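Fill-in record for Esterase yqiA.
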Amino acid sequence: MTYNKREKVIIYLHGFLSSPQSVKAQQTKAFVDEYYPDLIFYIPQLDNHPKPAAKMLDELVAQHPNSKLGFIGSSMGGYFSSYLLERYGGKAVLINPAVQPYNLLTDYLGEHVNPYTEQKFSLRESHTHDLKTFDTPTLAQPQNYWVLLQTEDETLDYRLAEQKYLGAKVTIEQGGDHSFQGYERFLTDIFQFLLQD
């Protein structure tokens, strides 16, 4: 009897002002529960500020040394998924990912309330500088990414992601929105991509 050399770990990363209770996160969890009940799967609640969010993710990955890692990241979660993949290896599926969120967040400075957790927090200019430290201007293995984009994303310009992830598998759908309409259609293929050797 041969032992599976490397355990497989999938981490779903939600976006800014979102949570594990978001629609896509819950669709992903339901899919895993039904089809991959033995998979090590996480949907962490990300801190609203970049440094503690990245620290928590680093610590989560460290719990699974030598594992085969997979990341699913939506919006800001896509940004952090790229950071994790470039640092630790693995594969990632990015859904309407934020490419330069440190530029975008300058329009969001001030007080916020997370609509899912009702947590109040303040976003400062220092946080946008912190966010930039997790950027991945170059991709060591673009073939380990699959990027899902919809052209009518009202929050992010999909063309920025199309340009950044040159060499990756990229799927562009006309229309849609920032939430990526019809995400659940891709779940079977997403997990095949992440779990295949």
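KEY FINDING: The beta strands are 8-13, 40-42, 68-74, 91-95, 110-113, 120-123, 145-150, 169-173.
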